Amino acid sequence: MVNQDTSVSRETTVGSTPSNPSPEFHDTPIAAAAARASQVLTPGGAGELPRPQSTRVLTVANQKGGVGKTTTAVNLAAGLALHGLGVLVIDLDPQGNASTALGIDHRVPGIASVYELLLGEVRLADAIQNSPANDRLLCVPATLDLAGAEIELVSLVARENRLRNALDEQTLKDLGIDYVLIDCPPSLGLLTVNAMVAAKEVLIPIQCEYYALEGVGQLLRNIELVQAHLNPGLHVSTVVLTMYDGRTKLADQVAEEVRRHFGDKVLTTIIPRSVKVSEAPGYGMTIIEYDPGSRGAMSYLDAARELAMRAVQQ
Ligand code: ADP
Ligand code: MG
Question: Which of 154, 224, 229, 255 has the greatest number of C-beta atoms within 10 Å?
Fold first, then answer.
Protein backbone atom coordinates (compact mmCIF):
# COMPACT_ATOMS: atom_id res chain seq x y z
CA MET A 1 0.00 0.00 0.00
CA VAL A 2 2.76 2.36 0.99
CA ASN A 3 4.34 1.88 -2.39
CA GLN A 4 1.12 2.56 -4.22
CA ASP A 5 0.75 5.80 -2.32
CA THR A 6 4.22 6.89 -3.28
CA SER A 7 3.63 6.46 -6.96
CA VAL A 8 0.31 8.29 -6.68
CA SER A 9 1.99 11.20 -4.95
CA ARG A 10 4.65 11.30 -7.66
CA GLU A 11 1.94 11.51 -10.24
CA THR A 12 0.49 14.36 -8.24
CA THR A 13 3.80 16.20 -8.38
CA VAL A 14 3.88 15.67 -12.11
CA GLY A 15 0.25 16.65 -12.41
CA SER A 16 0.84 20.02 -10.80
CA THR A 17 2.92 21.24 -13.69
CA PRO A 18 1.53 23.48 -16.43
CA SER A 19 2.14 20.88 -19.12
CA ASN A 20 -0.36 18.58 -17.51
CA PRO A 21 -3.97 19.58 -18.04
CA SER A 22 -6.57 18.94 -15.37
CA PRO A 23 -7.67 15.31 -15.24
CA GLU A 24 -11.45 15.77 -15.43
CA PHE A 25 -11.34 16.39 -19.20
CA HIS A 26 -9.18 13.37 -19.89
CA ASP A 27 -10.60 10.53 -17.93
CA THR A 28 -8.61 7.73 -19.51
CA PRO A 29 -4.85 7.47 -19.17
CA ILE A 30 -4.36 7.44 -22.94
CA ALA A 31 -6.50 10.53 -23.47
CA ALA A 32 -4.65 12.31 -20.69
CA ALA A 33 -1.28 11.37 -22.16
CA ALA A 34 -2.38 12.51 -25.62
CA ALA A 35 -3.54 15.84 -24.21
CA ARG A 36 -0.26 16.31 -22.36
CA ALA A 37 1.67 15.39 -25.50
CA SER A 38 -0.14 17.89 -27.69
CA GLN A 39 0.34 20.63 -25.12
CA VAL A 40 4.05 19.89 -24.73
CA LEU A 41 4.57 19.90 -28.49
CA THR A 42 2.67 23.15 -29.11
CA PRO A 43 5.29 25.88 -29.62
CA GLY A 44 5.74 27.56 -26.26
CA GLY A 45 3.35 25.01 -24.73
CA ALA A 46 5.91 23.88 -22.19
CA GLY A 47 6.37 27.47 -21.01
CA GLU A 48 9.59 29.44 -20.85
CA LEU A 49 12.32 29.05 -18.27
CA PRO A 50 14.63 31.84 -17.13
CA ARG A 51 18.05 32.01 -18.73
CA PRO A 52 20.93 31.74 -16.28
CA GLN A 53 23.07 34.89 -15.94
CA SER A 54 26.01 33.07 -17.45
CA THR A 55 26.26 29.67 -19.14
CA ARG A 56 25.89 26.87 -16.60
CA VAL A 57 28.28 23.99 -17.21
CA LEU A 58 27.28 20.73 -15.52
CA THR A 59 29.17 17.47 -15.49
CA VAL A 60 26.94 14.42 -15.27
CA ALA A 61 29.10 11.95 -13.40
CA ASN A 62 28.98 8.68 -11.51
CA GLN A 63 31.66 6.12 -12.22
CA LYS A 64 29.12 3.34 -11.91
CA GLY A 65 27.79 2.26 -15.29
CA GLY A 66 24.10 2.00 -16.02
CA VAL A 67 22.84 4.45 -13.40
CA GLY A 68 21.21 6.78 -15.93
CA LYS A 69 23.94 9.33 -16.66
CA THR A 70 23.39 9.41 -20.40
CA THR A 71 19.61 9.14 -20.16
CA THR A 72 19.56 12.01 -17.69
CA ALA A 73 22.00 14.21 -19.63
CA VAL A 74 20.10 13.80 -22.88
CA ASN A 75 16.57 14.13 -21.55
CA LEU A 76 17.30 17.00 -19.20
CA ALA A 77 18.93 18.74 -22.15
CA ALA A 78 15.84 18.11 -24.27
CA GLY A 79 13.62 19.35 -21.43
CA LEU A 80 15.61 22.58 -21.08
CA ALA A 81 15.61 23.13 -24.85
CA LEU A 82 11.85 22.61 -25.04
CA HIS A 83 11.51 25.45 -22.54
CA GLY A 84 13.36 27.80 -24.84
CA LEU A 85 16.89 27.44 -23.50
CA GLY A 86 20.00 26.82 -25.60
CA VAL A 87 21.65 23.56 -24.59
CA LEU A 88 24.88 21.85 -25.61
CA VAL A 89 25.48 18.20 -24.73
CA ILE A 90 29.10 17.10 -24.81
CA ASP A 91 29.34 13.37 -25.26
CA LEU A 92 32.46 12.30 -23.40
CA ASP A 93 31.79 8.56 -23.48
CA PRO A 94 33.44 6.59 -26.32
CA GLN A 95 30.24 4.53 -26.56
CA GLY A 96 28.56 7.62 -28.01
CA ASN A 97 25.20 6.80 -26.46
CA ALA A 98 24.31 10.44 -25.87
CA SER A 99 25.06 11.24 -29.51
CA THR A 100 22.82 8.36 -30.63
CA ALA A 101 19.96 9.39 -28.36
CA LEU A 102 20.16 12.91 -29.77
CA GLY A 103 19.76 11.50 -33.27
CA ILE A 104 23.32 12.24 -34.34
CA ASP A 105 25.09 9.67 -36.45
CA HIS A 106 28.51 9.48 -34.86
CA ARG A 107 29.77 6.61 -37.01
CA VAL A 108 30.21 8.77 -40.10
CA PRO A 109 33.91 8.53 -41.02
CA GLY A 110 35.86 11.73 -40.55
CA ILE A 111 33.32 13.67 -38.49
CA ALA A 112 34.66 16.23 -36.06
CA SER A 113 34.02 14.91 -32.56
CA VAL A 114 34.98 15.55 -28.98
CA TYR A 115 38.16 13.56 -29.62
CA GLU A 116 39.50 16.09 -32.14
CA LEU A 117 38.31 18.85 -29.84
CA LEU A 118 40.33 17.50 -26.90
CA LEU A 119 43.39 17.07 -29.09
CA GLY A 120 43.06 20.65 -30.30
CA GLU A 121 42.57 19.62 -33.92
CA VAL A 122 39.22 21.36 -34.36
CA ARG A 123 37.49 24.35 -32.80
CA LEU A 124 34.33 24.03 -30.74
CA ALA A 125 32.13 25.53 -33.46
CA ASP A 126 33.34 22.91 -35.94
CA ALA A 127 32.58 19.96 -33.64
CA ILE A 128 29.03 21.02 -32.78
CA GLN A 129 26.06 19.39 -34.48
CA ASN A 130 22.37 20.18 -34.24
CA SER A 131 20.08 17.52 -32.85
CA PRO A 132 17.00 16.92 -35.01
CA ALA A 133 15.07 16.84 -31.72
CA ASN A 134 15.13 20.61 -31.28
CA ASP A 135 16.92 23.47 -32.99
CA ARG A 136 18.13 24.76 -29.62
CA LEU A 137 19.65 21.38 -28.76
CA LEU A 138 23.27 20.96 -29.82
CA CYS A 139 25.79 18.18 -29.36
CA VAL A 140 29.47 17.52 -29.66
CA PRO A 141 29.37 13.82 -30.55
CA ALA A 142 31.74 11.08 -29.43
CA THR A 143 33.32 8.54 -31.73
CA LEU A 144 35.13 5.32 -30.88
CA ASP A 145 38.41 7.24 -31.29
CA LEU A 146 37.70 8.63 -27.86
CA ALA A 147 38.46 5.22 -26.35
CA GLY A 148 42.14 5.90 -27.01
CA ALA A 149 42.04 9.46 -25.71
CA GLU A 150 42.37 8.42 -22.09
CA ILE A 151 45.89 7.23 -22.90
CA GLU A 152 46.77 9.79 -25.58
CA LEU A 153 45.91 12.66 -23.27
CA VAL A 154 48.47 11.55 -20.70
CA SER A 155 51.38 12.90 -22.74
CA LEU A 156 49.74 16.19 -23.73
CA VAL A 157 50.34 19.54 -22.05
CA ALA A 158 47.55 20.73 -19.79
CA ARG A 159 46.01 17.30 -20.08
CA GLU A 160 43.37 17.99 -17.43
CA ASN A 161 42.39 21.34 -18.96
CA ARG A 162 41.84 20.31 -22.56
CA LEU A 163 38.05 20.44 -22.47
CA ARG A 164 37.90 23.64 -20.44
CA ASN A 165 40.25 25.33 -22.89
CA ALA A 166 38.19 24.08 -25.82
CA LEU A 167 34.89 25.46 -24.46
CA ASP A 168 35.46 28.95 -25.66
CA GLU A 169 33.09 31.46 -24.16
CA GLN A 170 32.57 33.52 -27.27
CA THR A 171 31.34 30.51 -29.25
CA LEU A 172 28.97 29.52 -26.43
CA LYS A 173 27.67 33.07 -26.40
CA ASP A 174 27.33 33.33 -30.18
CA LEU A 175 25.35 30.09 -30.27
CA GLY A 176 23.11 31.23 -27.40
CA ILE A 177 24.05 28.33 -25.14
CA ASP A 178 22.63 28.60 -21.63
CA TYR A 179 23.49 25.08 -20.47
CA VAL A 180 26.34 22.72 -21.21
CA LEU A 181 25.78 19.15 -20.01
CA ILE A 182 28.79 16.85 -20.15
CA ASP A 183 27.99 13.14 -20.27
CA CYS A 184 30.85 11.26 -18.58
CA PRO A 185 32.08 7.71 -19.15
CA PRO A 186 31.72 5.22 -16.28
CA SER A 187 35.19 5.78 -14.86
CA LEU A 188 37.14 8.40 -12.97
CA GLY A 189 39.91 8.66 -15.54
CA LEU A 190 41.26 11.65 -17.45
CA LEU A 191 38.09 12.16 -19.48
CA THR A 192 36.00 12.57 -16.34
CA VAL A 193 38.69 14.80 -14.82
CA ASN A 194 38.54 16.96 -17.96
CA ALA A 195 34.78 17.21 -17.51
CA MET A 196 35.18 18.20 -13.87
CA VAL A 197 37.73 20.87 -14.72
CA ALA A 198 35.50 22.29 -17.46
CA ALA A 199 32.39 22.48 -15.27
CA LYS A 200 31.36 24.37 -12.20
CA GLU A 201 28.63 21.97 -11.17
CA VAL A 202 28.47 18.21 -10.83
CA LEU A 203 25.13 16.47 -11.33
CA ILE A 204 25.10 12.95 -9.90
CA PRO A 205 22.42 10.54 -11.10
CA ILE A 206 21.74 7.82 -8.55
CA GLN A 207 19.78 4.72 -9.42
CA CYS A 208 17.14 3.67 -6.88
CA GLU A 209 18.60 0.18 -6.63
CA TYR A 210 20.77 -2.02 -4.45
CA TYR A 211 24.19 -0.48 -3.72
CA ALA A 212 23.00 2.89 -4.96
CA LEU A 213 25.57 4.79 -2.93
CA GLU A 214 28.36 2.37 -3.67
CA GLY A 215 31.26 4.26 -5.17
CA VAL A 216 29.70 7.66 -4.46
CA GLY A 217 32.23 8.22 -1.66
CA GLN A 218 35.04 7.71 -4.14
CA LEU A 219 33.37 10.07 -6.60
CA LEU A 220 33.09 12.75 -3.90
CA ARG A 221 36.75 12.33 -2.97
CA ASN A 222 37.73 12.78 -6.61
CA ILE A 223 35.60 15.90 -6.82
CA GLU A 224 37.43 17.22 -3.74
CA LEU A 225 40.79 16.50 -5.37
CA VAL A 226 39.84 18.35 -8.53
CA GLN A 227 38.52 21.18 -6.38
CA ALA A 228 41.75 21.39 -4.39
CA HIS A 229 44.17 21.23 -7.31
CA LEU A 230 42.47 22.14 -10.55
CA ASN A 231 39.07 23.82 -10.22
CA PRO A 232 38.26 25.53 -6.89
CA GLY A 233 34.72 26.45 -8.01
CA LEU A 234 33.61 22.86 -8.59
CA HIS A 235 30.78 21.57 -6.40
CA VAL A 236 28.01 18.98 -6.40
CA SER A 237 24.93 21.07 -7.14
CA THR A 238 22.37 18.45 -8.08
CA VAL A 239 21.49 14.83 -7.42
CA VAL A 240 18.84 13.09 -9.53
CA LEU A 241 17.17 9.87 -8.43
CA THR A 242 16.64 7.63 -11.45
CA MET A 243 14.83 4.41 -12.35
CA TYR A 244 12.51 4.64 -9.39
CA ASP A 245 10.17 1.68 -9.15
CA GLY A 246 7.22 2.57 -6.93
CA ARG A 247 6.34 -1.09 -6.45
CA THR A 248 9.42 -1.83 -4.42
CA LYS A 249 10.11 -0.80 -0.84
CA LEU A 250 13.78 -0.73 -1.69
CA ALA A 251 13.38 2.22 -4.06
CA ASP A 252 11.86 4.30 -1.26
CA GLN A 253 14.58 3.29 1.15
CA VAL A 254 17.27 4.26 -1.35
CA ALA A 255 15.55 7.59 -2.06
CA GLU A 256 15.39 8.32 1.67
CA GLU A 257 19.00 7.41 2.21
CA VAL A 258 20.14 9.59 -0.68
CA ARG A 259 18.08 12.52 0.64
CA ARG A 260 19.62 12.05 4.11
CA HIS A 261 23.04 12.13 2.55
CA PHE A 262 22.64 14.97 0.03
CA GLY A 263 19.77 17.00 1.52
CA ASP A 264 18.26 19.61 -0.77
CA LYS A 265 20.72 18.92 -3.57
CA VAL A 266 18.40 16.07 -4.50
CA LEU A 267 15.73 17.16 -6.98
CA THR A 268 12.18 16.72 -5.71
CA THR A 269 11.31 15.13 -9.05
CA ILE A 270 12.19 11.45 -9.20
CA ILE A 271 12.63 9.77 -12.57
CA PRO A 272 10.46 6.63 -12.71
CA ARG A 273 11.62 3.39 -14.26
CA SER A 274 9.81 3.21 -17.58
CA VAL A 275 10.22 1.02 -20.61
CA LYS A 276 9.53 3.99 -22.89
CA VAL A 277 12.56 5.83 -21.51
CA SER A 278 14.80 2.90 -22.37
CA GLU A 279 13.25 2.46 -25.84
CA ALA A 280 13.69 6.05 -27.02
CA PRO A 281 17.46 5.98 -27.77
CA GLY A 282 16.92 2.96 -30.02
CA TYR A 283 15.00 5.34 -32.32
CA GLY A 284 17.59 8.09 -31.99
CA MET A 285 15.18 10.11 -29.91
CA THR A 286 14.85 11.71 -26.51
CA ILE A 287 11.87 10.58 -24.44
CA ILE A 288 10.24 13.95 -25.07
CA GLU A 289 10.19 13.29 -28.80
CA TYR A 290 9.49 9.58 -28.54
CA ASP A 291 6.51 9.81 -26.20
CA PRO A 292 5.91 13.37 -25.05
CA GLY A 293 2.88 12.52 -22.93
CA SER A 294 4.55 9.69 -21.02
CA ARG A 295 5.48 9.70 -17.35
CA GLY A 296 9.13 9.55 -18.31
CA ALA A 297 8.86 12.67 -20.48
CA MET A 298 6.88 14.52 -17.82
CA SER A 299 9.40 13.66 -15.15
CA TYR A 300 12.36 14.87 -17.20
CA LEU A 301 10.47 18.06 -18.05
CA ASP A 302 9.81 18.58 -14.34
CA ALA A 303 13.44 17.87 -13.50
CA ALA A 304 14.56 20.39 -16.15
CA ARG A 305 12.28 23.05 -14.65
CA GLU A 306 13.58 22.35 -11.17
CA LEU A 307 17.17 22.54 -12.33
CA ALA A 308 16.59 25.86 -14.07
CA MET A 309 14.52 27.41 -11.26
CA ARG A 310 16.98 26.45 -8.55
CA ALA A 311 19.74 28.38 -10.25
CA VAL A 312 17.60 31.49 -10.29
CA GLN A 313 16.51 31.14 -6.68
CA GLN A 314 20.08 30.67 -5.43
P1 ADP B 1 24.82 5.31 -17.82
O2 ADP B 1 25.00 6.40 -18.80
O3 ADP B 1 24.99 5.76 -16.40
O4 ADP B 1 25.64 4.10 -18.11
P5 ADP B 1 22.25 4.94 -19.07
O6 ADP B 1 21.62 6.27 -19.08
O7 ADP B 1 22.88 4.48 -20.33
O8 ADP B 1 23.29 4.84 -17.88
O9 ADP B 1 21.17 3.90 -18.58
C10 ADP B 1 21.47 2.53 -18.44
C11 ADP B 1 20.34 1.69 -19.03
O12 ADP B 1 19.15 1.91 -18.29
C13 ADP B 1 20.03 2.05 -20.46
O14 ADP B 1 19.67 0.88 -21.14
C15 ADP B 1 18.84 2.98 -20.34
O16 ADP B 1 18.01 2.95 -21.48
C17 ADP B 1 18.13 2.41 -19.12
N18 ADP B 1 17.40 3.46 -18.40
C19 ADP B 1 17.87 4.65 -17.96
N20 ADP B 1 16.91 5.34 -17.33
C21 ADP B 1 15.81 4.57 -17.33
C22 ADP B 1 14.47 4.73 -16.82
N23 ADP B 1 14.10 5.81 -16.17
N24 ADP B 1 13.60 3.70 -17.01
C25 ADP B 1 14.00 2.57 -17.67
N26 ADP B 1 15.20 2.39 -18.18
C27 ADP B 1 16.11 3.35 -18.01
MG1 MG C 1 26.38 6.56 -20.40
Answer: 255
Ligand 1 centroid vs 66 CA: distance in angstroms? 6
Give me the CATH number covering residue 249. Answer: 3.40.50.300
Which ligand lies nearest to the CA atom of residue 298 in the structure? 1
Q: Is 61 within 8 Å of 192 (Cβ atoms)?
A: yes
| Alpha helices (H) along 103-161 | 114-119, 124-127, 146-152
Whether residue 184 has its Cβ less than 6 Å from ligand 1: no
pLDDT tens across 12-54, in order?
A: 333 334 444 444 556 777 777 777 777 777 767 777 899 999 9
Residue of 207, 276, 278 to mutate, ligand 1, most atoms within 8 A of C-beta: 278
Give the domain extent around 290.
54-313
Average pLDDT score, the chain: 89
Residue 209 lies in a domain: yes
First-to-last C-alpha distance (Å) of the chain? 37
**What span, in angstroms and rounded, lies between the C-alpha atoms of 201 and 157?**
24
- Whether 42 is in a domain gets the answer no
Measured from the Cα of 272, ligand 1's closest atom is 23
Q: Is residue 246 part of a domain?
A: yes
Q: For ligand 1, is residue 66 a contact (CB within 6 Å)?
A: yes
pLDDT at res. 26: 66
